[in-house]
Specification:
The protein is mainly α and 181 residues long. Among the domains are: 40 residues, Beta-Lactamase (2-Layer Sandwich), CATH 3.30.450; 53 residues, no CATH class. It is built from 4 helices and 2 strands, in the order E-E-H-H-H-H. The longest helix is centred in the middle third of the chain and has 72 residues.
């Protein structure tokens, strides 16, 4: 197996990738790894990962590297816990927003039902007030507000106008002035 004193400088385009199983046996290498290692694919696949370490790298250096990686594992774990907590907070906020959206939808439905009910009540009031005789014209002959006679005064709702006219014409109650419709 080749061991060379040739140093290979990696460029930004190089991507050195190898994969080992739990026993440290190489199971995959990419083309850049193969080119830089100086080995053939058949020499590397199935071999121990130690085959590609520099020949002058002492075992103590490998142990030191493993210790450094082991030392940063708790930091990686803590960062993972923080990330999980952040994701849970986002999920909780989304759940609250969904609840508020559902409440708003229910309020809109209630408001629509109230509007419909008020429209019915208003129409019933128009029908009731329309049965009163005010002068030569009955209010029921005006089916729409635009059909009402025009005045030069500020616009008044047809119902308020009718009530104003009724009150202006009313006289103190006297049993002799009853009129049938």
């Amino acid at each position: 197996m080749p061991v060379t004193d040739v140093e290979h400088v990696l460029t930004e385009q190089d991507s050195v990738v190898s994969k080992t199983d739990l026993g440290g046996i190489i199971t995959y290498i990419n083309e850049d790894f193969l080119r830089i290692s100086g080995f053939t694919q058949n020499e590397l696949i199935g071999a121990s990962h130690n085959i590609v370490r520099p020949p002058d790298l002492p075992p103590e250096e490998i142990v030191s590297s493993i210790r450094r990686v082991t030392a940063i594992m708790p930091e990686i774990s803590a960062a993972s816990v923080e990330q999980t907590s952040g994701i849970e907070q986002v999920n909780q906020a989304i759940g609250q927003m969904d609840g508020v959206t559902q409440q708003n939808a229910a309020l809109v439905e209630q408001a629509a039902a109230a509007v419909e009910s008020l429209e019915e009540q208003a129409q019933n009031q128009v029908n009731t007030v329309g049965s009163f005789k005010v002068d030569d014209h009955s209010a029921s002959s005006f089916s729409r507000p635009q059909d009402m006679p025009k005045t030069n005064k500020e616009p008044i709702s047809p119902h308020r106008k009718l009530l104003s006219e009724l009150m202006a014409k009313s006289q103190p109650m006297d049993n002799n002035h009853w009129e049938e419709f």
